[in-house]
Amino acid sequence: MLSERIVTGALRILNRSYLGQQPADVTRLPVPEPGKQYTLYLHIPFCERLCPYCSFNRFLYGEERARTYFKALRTELERSADCGYHFATLYIGGGTPTILVDELCETIDLAKRLFPEIKEVSAESSPNHVTDETIDALKDRVDRFSVGVQSFDDTLLNQMARYDKYGCGEKVFERVQLAAGRFHSLNVDMIFNFPSQSRAILERDIELVKATGANQTTFYPLMASPKNRRELARTIGAIDFAREAEYYRIVCDGLAPEFEPASAWTFSKEKGGMIDEYIVDYDEYVGLGSGGLSFIGGRIYNNTFSLADYAARIDSGQSAIAKMGKLYGRKARMRYRFVTDLFGLRLDKERFLRDFGVPVERGLWAELAFMRMAGGIATDTPEEITLTMHGRYLLLVMMRETLAASNDHRDHERELLPPEEKLLLNDDALMGCEPVGEECPVPC
Question: Are the C-beta atoms of 114 and 87 separated by less than 8 Å?
Fold first, then answer.
């Protein structure tokens, strides 16, 4: 599809500039803008097993190092309050945030005490952690509970290294059903356009999502970094971007009419539910924890990826920020607003004019002209711009490329980790070894 190739090519060029970062000596979080509310993201970088296609910052789990990490994270959380931040929403991702439910609950409770204005909490989980114990602990703390399923197909689960970890598709389905109706929003995370995924597998996955009782689902396109794309091509098969738009249409048509689009890739039974991408709700956000990413004052800040360096920085009273990007210019910030608003399905023209002093038609005339020519605009009134299904797909492509570029950055940062932490990036390093205690060869 020509429009997809144009967007993909343009984003791969632009993201080199927009997402580029350099080492920085930042002693504390930047001062927030008075009266402004931000979104808070907390990163929990631990998993019992590591999925080969995943580029997020994650390490093999060990109880001692995870508890040490949670303690440091809560200290960093307190310091963000000391800086004067106000957070309206809290998102907790990973890794596997529910790896230690007692630590997670303590962290959520602290966040709500420090920031009583937080009105919504979203937390991710893995199927093996969806138990009555976990649900009972979180149902009054978490508004949106998101379970990472990816697929119910046993062949795909094996290829994703998830079958041994979480069980067969039938078992995963039962886990999701257990949580249905017990959270305000129960979200099922799925992947589409995995190399070996057939149309029949995708259609079956859609029907099973609808049968779980979940009231929200997110279907992500596979967003592998260049390194992971090469590895997938070697072991399973190359990602077929040519069929991505077709698979997206299958997702949209298959979920309708029970599920309506809430963002370009999230679908909800009820309007107004929380979605997975926190950048849609608020212009700027603060990311805490190892590898946490912040966008503050038009600049990207990135916390250290090293667990040891993160702990040392927090213990010494320093900021965890290790790198930062260049300051976004006016055009870059307009483009950022354009993408984030339309990814959330509606660009507010009056807000755009108020914030940038120029109508979107003049400030981003080329971007709008492209979207119109591509058939991406559904409505264009004095108040707003909304998207057709093809327009939503083009915004999905923009987000796919942006997150794939971020994953490339994460891959690079992992290469810089000390040798003892690189061991925690490989399941084989701990095979046959209990990852906690004095006998383990990997320091906890």
Answer: no
Average pLDDT of the chain to the nearest whole number: 89
What's the CA angle centered on 399, arms 382 and 203, to 5 degrees? Answer: 105
Tell me how far apart the alpha carbons of residues 405 and 363 are, in angstroms, rounded to a whole number.
26
Tell whether 289 is covered by a domain: no
What angle, rounded to 10 degrees, do the helices at 330-343 and 349-356 form?
A: 160
Same domain for 106 and 217, yes or no, is yes
Full domain range(s) for residue 357:
1-20+330-415
| Rounded distance between C-alpha atoms, residue 67 and residue 72, angstroms | 9
Check residue 436 and give its pLDDT.
Answer: 34
154 within 8 A of 123, measured Cβ to Cβ: no
**Tens digits of residue pLDDT in 108-117:** 999 999 999 9
Cis peptide bond prior to 441, omega within 30° of 0: no
User: Do 82 and 5 reside in the same domain of the chain?
Assistant: no
User: CA-to-CA distance for 225 and 404, rounded, in angstroms?
Assistant: 5
243 CA to centre of own chain: 23
Cβ proximity of 347 and 339 under 8 Å: no
Regarding whether 57 and 12 lie in a shared domain, the answer is no
Q: The whole model's pTM is what?
A: 0.90
What's the distance, Cα to Cα, between the start and end of the chain in Å? 49
Distances (CA, A) of 206 to 6, 105, 209: 29, 32, 5
Q: Return the sign of the alpha-carbon dihedral for residues 58, 61, 62, 65.
A: positive
140 and 248 in a single domain? The answer is yes
Report pLDDT digits (tens) over 42-93: 999 998 877 766 667 888 889 999 999 999 999 999 999 999 999 999 999 9
The CATH number for 409's domain is 1.10.10.920
The tokens describing 58, both together, are 């994650």
Query: Are 13 and 72 part of one and the same domain?
Result: no
Write down how long the chain is. 444
Model confidence at 8, pLDDT cuts 50, 70, 90, reads: confident
Chain centroid to CA 339: how far? 16
Phi, psi of 87 (to 5 degrees): -115, 135
Count helices and strands (H / E) in the chain: 17, 18
